[in-house]
Every structure is written in C-alpha cells, then in structure tokens.
Amino acid sequence: MLPYYNSTRAISFFLRSCSLKIKVEVCGYPLSIFFIVVNEFCERFSYYGMRAVLVLYFRYFLKWDDDLATSIYHTFVALCYLTPILGAIVADSWLGKFKTIVYLSIVYTLGQVVMAVSAIHDLTDTDMDGVPNNMVVHVALSMTGLLLIALGTGGIKPCVAAFGGDQFEDHQEKQRSTFFSIFYLSINAGSLLSTIITPILRAQECGIHSQQKCYPLAFGVPAALMVVALIVFISGSSMYTKTAPKGNIMLEVCKCIGFAIHNRFRHRSKKFPKREHWMDWADEKYDKLLVAQVKMVLKVLFLYIPLPMFWTLFDQQGSRWTLQATTMDGDFTVNPILILIMVPVMDSVIYPLIKKCHLNFTPLKRMTVGMFVAAMAFVAAALLQLQIDQTLPQLPSGAEGQVKFVNLNNENLSVAIEGTDYNVPPFQVSGDYLTFDKPFNVALTKNNVTKKDNLTLKSQTRQTTLVGPSLDLRMVTDLTRKPEEGMNAVRFVNGFGAALNVSFVGTIEPLDISNYTNIKQGPAEFRITNTGGQSCLYNKQMGFGSSFTFVIPSTFDIQSSNCKQAIQAVEDIKPNTIHMGWQIPQYFLMTSGEVVFSVTGLEFSYSQAPSNMKSVLQAGWLLTVAVGNIIVLIVAEAAQLPDQWAEYILFASLLVLVCIIFGIMSYFYTYTDPAEIEARFALPEYDPEEKKKKKDSIVMEWKDSLKRKVSGSRKRSNSSKGSDKQDNDELKQSRM
C-alpha cells in the first residue's frame, strides 16, 4: 500500500509541476514561441501538402470526373474556413486557446491518418490488379478524413497566432511584432516545401501486390508532420502563458445585433421617433461603447460583401488550374515561390515608388487593383486554354464514332468508304480517324479481290479495325481521352507469323493487338523476344499524354541490327506540346493580386477594427474565403459551359463586375480612427460609474430640495395657525 501511495503522490507532484509556468527567454523572446512557430510550420506543411495532391487523388484514384473533383475540393476548402468561427467560440468561451489547440490537433491528426489509409489501393484490391475493388470504402474513408481535417485545421486557425501573442508581456511590443512576421514566414515556408515535396512523393510507385502512384506516402508524410506538430506544441506546455476563457466577443456582438433588430421591430410604429443608426436601438440594454464598436465592425463587414468573388478565382489554382496543368508538358511548382518573392517586392519597391509619385494609393484602392489583377489572371488562363484545346484530339461527340484501318497484309489494301478510296500500304494505318454518325459501307480490295461490309460505330468511341489476310475485320476500342497524369498509352500489333513477347506489355499472338500499357515520360525501351529467346530492343522517346500503336510487320527480322526500324509507330493521340511554363503569367498575376488584395485587406481591417474586436473581423475575413469556394460550386454547376476557356472568362467577368461595385463602395467609405472613437467613451460623461455617481447626486439633490420644500410648507402652516389664534383672542377681548 505504501509504494502505491508514494507513486500516486509522485505522479500528482509531476502533473502539478507541469502545470507551473517556467519563464525562459532567449534573446529577449519567450522560449515558448519557438514551439509555437515550429508547430505552425509543421501544421501548414501538413495542410498544404495534403491539399496539393487532393484534386489529383479525386481525379485519378477515386476516378471522379473533373467537375465532381472540383466540387468536392472546394466544398472541403469552404469547410476549412467555416470552422474557425467554431474554434474561436470554443476557445474563448469554454476550453481556452491551449486546450482547444491540443484537442483539435488530435482530431486533425486522426483525419490525416485516415486520409493516408484511404489511399492504400491494396486495402480492397482483392484480385491484385492494382485497382481497388470496393471504391465505396475508399470514398467513405477519405470523406471522413477530410471532415476531421476541416474541423481540426479550421478550429485551431484563429487560436495559434493569438496564443503566440499571449506569450509576450506588455513591454515586449517590438518582439511581438517580430514574432508575427516570423509566424507568417513559417506559414509560407511550410506551404512552399510541402507543395514541392508532396507531388514528388506522389510520383513514386508503391504497393504490396502492384506498384501504383504512391498517394499513401503523399498523405502519410503530412500526417507524420501533424504528429510532430502536436508533440512539439505539447512539449512547451510548461512554458506557456495560458489565459483563462473570458467569454467570446463574437457571441456578445451577435447578441447585441440581435437585440437591436428585435427592439427595432418592436418599435416599428411611426409614433416612435427614429434613431440615427439602427444599432442605437440596442442602447436600452448594452453599453454605448459596445454599440459604437459594433457600428465600426458592421461598417467594415459591409465592405466584405463583394470580397468572396476574389477567393472564388484564387482557390481555383488548386482545382481547375491543376487539372489544366495535366494537359500540358512539364512539371513544376511556382505559386509559393512567387508569394515569397512578391511580398517583399511590393512592400520594398512598388508601394514606396507609388508613394514617391504622390499617388493616393489607399488600402481600398489597393484591394480594388488586386481584384482586377486576379481577373486578368483568369483571362490569361482562358487564352492559354484556347491554345491547349488546339493540341487536344478532336474526339467524337453525340452520335459520332471514329475509325481507322490497319493493314495486316503483305500487299496494298484499298479501302473504299462511301465513295472515297484510301490506299493502305502493308502493315500501315489508313491515316487519321474517320468520323461517322451513322452506319456506312466499306469495300476492301486486295489483289483484285473485293469484300464489302457494313460497319456501325458505337457513339462517342474510337475504334481501330484490323484487316487480316482473308480481309476479315476485327474492331478494337481505342482511347477516347488523353492518358491520365501525363502518362503515355502504348500498344503493339503483332503482324509477325509467331507469338512475340514485349516487355511491359506481355505476350502477343500472331495478327493480334495488345491492351494499352501506360509508360512514363522520357526514353522508353521495349524488348521484343520471340519463342526462341532472341530479342530486339526498340527505343522511343515519350512526351506527356500521348498514345501510340506500334505495328510489327511480317518482315520483322529480330536478329537484324536494324530490327527496330521495321516497326511502324502510329500516333493515335498527340503528346502535350504546350509547356507548363506558359502558366507562369497567370500565376504571376494571381500572386500579385493576392499580395495586393489579401495583405492590404487584413491591414485595412485591423486598422478599422475596435481594439477588442479584431477576432470578429478575422472571422469575417475567413468567412469570405468560405463563401468564395461555395460560389465556385454554384457558378460551375449553374453555368454548365462546354468549354473550359469560357468558364474562365465567365469568372473573370464576374470579378470585374464585383471589382467595379467594390470601387464604388470604397469611394463612399469614410475612414475612421477606432482609438479616437473609443477614447470619447473614456470621458466622464461616458463612464458608467461616473454616470451612476452623477445620477445618484442628482437624485440626492432632488430629495433634499423636496425635503426643504415640505419643511418650509409645514412651518408656514404652523405660523398661520398661531396668528389666527392671536387675532381671535384680541377679538374676544374687544367684545368684553
């Protein structure tokens, strides 16, 4: 019993000692902030790393189309920016910032782990072919993971920076300002590294039964970083300044606004006099200072109404622009690098230059310019998309089908289709695809022998027709879209008289065609081996997103040093020819717009916000991001435009329209000084205590005055009675 008692006391003492605050400073800074900065770096790496490959995971692992992948992506981002309001309320009203960060970080970490597990294709790959057999399991796991991540990352977003600010004393204003700069730098550093590293991890191949794109690794590393973030943050527990919850100002503001609306509705009759501002109807219950502060907040929030459209365009960098890049040549990351470059360039070069030119470039004017520049980024994206569309294959639509013929004979083949003759040399292809929207007649002629047939093509399909030695036809289905993820789809036609084995493809029987096999970009080597073990090495340089059919003729001599020259390469789908570098202009414009709009917007909001309501405007700012992502879903679904460039122009036009509206609103906006307004209410006439004392003094004076009046009245009454008695006595004496 004694050892148990002693161990219990030791644990209790340890927990009490951990709860004590240990004040340690390094170079004038609290040591605790270093734990917070490292935590923020790891958390941002985790979030942006996962988000960098999320739309590709939807598109290529879950096999969703572009529209569904885009919709779910923006729904997730919207949730991430809606939950900060919940996190702020929980932290300020119940748990405090420290516990809120810890608890929601655990939820966040679980979400990242669930996402990593959902990407393991071997989880349901029962037939071991590399394709999950139960996609419902993967979808359910991924949606659960994303929900937990949205709750976690959004919940801690308003708490971490504020918790870092709490670590400084009142005399450390300079250090606090430097901390926020370092804090913002850690966010961008985590974003930059993750958006470079995570796509590289995804490009690796992994798996138990088959090697596929390594999404588990791409999601697993961010999950590991989130574990590190949680451990690092908890490690500094004993050094933190932990303020107790003091009630959420956001709730107080909402209650005040609600009471004003309710009170105004109750006094809607014309017999009640109008008040200068509708918030003045809250004066009966709330302090005049709070009402004045709410007025200032509402004035800024009114300007926020057009802002979501900027985020509608900005956040499509992770969806539409990422999908646009998959149809281009190359692979690189540019946006985070541009952000790190443009922020100091704007602050150190552009803004000082404008100031020297004596231009009144106010914050609201900067934001208007930022919105216009972002709209121009989408115009650039539309122009680029027009060029990309010209390189894409003209695929069949509606009832159309496409066909071409491969001659597997040693003689020339004449193909007559609807009165048009096509001459196909031995082991060659008839040329480009022919398009038909109804059944057609075909006449095949070889050595004066003609065979006629009637062919019907399936709608919206491409087919290759193999013509054998007996003019027999075999139709195989071709690709109707570019290969995924920039891969190259290749297949072999064996016109040789014996079976051949092709590396990466498998064994092909005589006069047969293989299935498509995906090959990476770069030099590809195919070893062709006959049944006797002799082989020939065939080389082909592969680009991005092409499709080839390689025809091996009957004259193929596997022992010849020039054996590879006999193989005919037929290009079914051309490779991507426009380099990703052409996306730099649109990213440059968007990043410039972000720096001018976002940084200035936060600066403006804080300058116009009351001292105790910065968090309210921060929540309002994050809410505009959420609404912007919801607008993407609404516009994309409602517009249903057939061409992607047209959708880009639509979004650019909407932002230009909103930009004009915001410019008009800004013109009529009057800048205020919250400190000056709050200082007025610090005067005695606005001090509640002074007002109470003054009121009590007035009441006391009134009571004293009333007492004096009553006392004087009584004296006059008594005096009058005495005088009357004397007069009566004198009258009696005169009568006697």
UniProtKB/TrEMBL annotation:
Ranges annotated as biased composition (Basic residues): 708-718
Transmembrane segments: 45-62, 68-89, 101-120, 135-156, 177-197, 217-240, 296-314, 334-354, 366-386, 616-636, 648-669
Single Gene Ontology MF annotation: symporter activity
BP term (GO), one: protein transport
Catalytic reaction(s) noted: L-aspartyl-glycine(out) + 2 H(+)(out) = L-aspartyl-glycine(in) + 2 H(+)(in); L-phenylalanyl-L-leucine(out) + H(+)(out) = L-phenylalanyl-L-leucine(in) + H(+)(in); glycyl-sarcosine(out) + H(+)(out) = glycyl-sarcosine(in) + H(+)(in); glycyl-L-aspartate(out) + 2 H(+)(out) = glycyl-L-aspartate(in) + 2 H(+)(in)
Pfam family, one: PTR2
InterPro entries per record: MFS_trans_sf, POT_fam, PTR2_symporter_CS
Membrane-topology annotation of the record: Multi-pass membrane protein
Record keywords, A-Z: Cell membrane, Glycoprotein, Membrane, Peptide transport, Protein transport, Symport, Transmembrane, Transmembrane helix, Transport
Region (Disordered): 706-736
Amino acid composition bias (Basic and acidic residues), ranges on this chain: 722-736
Entry annotated with the keyword Cell membrane: yes
GO CC list: apical plasma membrane
Signal peptide segment: none
PANTHER family recorded: OLIGOPEPTIDE TRANSPORTER-RELATED
Family stated for the protein in its record: Belongs to the major facilitator superfamily. Proton-dependent oligopeptide transporter (POT/PTR) (TC 2.A.17) family.
Function, as annotated: Electrogenic proton-coupled amino-acid transporter that transports oligopeptides of 2 to 4 amino acids with a preference for dipeptides. Transports neutral and monovalently charged peptides with a proton to peptide stoichiometry of 1:1 or 2:1. Primarily responsible for the absorption of dietary di- and tripeptides from the small intestinal lumen. Mediates transepithelial transport of muramyl and N-formylated bacterial dipeptides contributing to recognition of pathogenic bacteria by the mucosal immune system.
Name of the protein described by the UniProt record: Solute carrier family 15 member 1
Organism of origin: Esox lucius (Northern pike)
